[in-house]
Amino acid sequence: MVEQFVGTWTLVNSDKFDDYMKAVGVNFATRQMGILAKPNVVINVGDDGFITLKSVTTFKTTEFKFKLNEECDEDTPDGRATKTTMTIEDGKLVQKQAWDGKTTRIEREIQDGKLIAKCYMDDVVAVRTYEKAA
């Protein structure tokens, strides 16, 4: 089920991402970089069963390795240290992050050949749309 997400994806549209970062608690300077960054997201599945989700921007590259349904430590691009669990729910790759008594959820799904990432924090929903790189 994860195979449909494998590949390199380029950000083409971002809606309410600054609001989402604010809700998560990201500081102003980091949010400005986050708004300017047009990340490529690279998703791979290794022979060891680990899935790698890499975010590549001109500012920094972050890499997160995980196994489905197993809680693990994640250092987010904005500097949070979270306990993260990745699952597949209704065909979506769902990322739940918990830190400092807060939780956020990112749902990624494929729609019309695009990768749609919906980021939920409290009542804020940001939508980021990626197209598959050639």
From TrEMBL:
Gene3D superfamilies xref list: 2.40.128.20
Molecular function in Gene Ontology: retinal binding; retinol binding
UniProt domain Lipocalin/cytosolic fatty-acid binding: residue ranges: 6-132
One Pfam assignment: Lipocalin
Database matches in InterPro entries: Calycin (IPR012674), Fatty_acid-bd (IPR000463), ILBP (IPR031259), Lipocln_cytosolic_FA-bd_dom (IPR000566)
UniProt keyword annotations, A-Z: Retinol-binding, Vitamin A
Family from the record: Belongs to the calycin superfamily. Fatty-acid binding protein (FABP) family.
Stated role: Cytosolic CRABPs may regulate the access of retinoic acid to the nuclear retinoic acid receptors.
Protein name: Cellular retinoic acid-binding protein 1
Protein species of origin: Oreochromis aureus
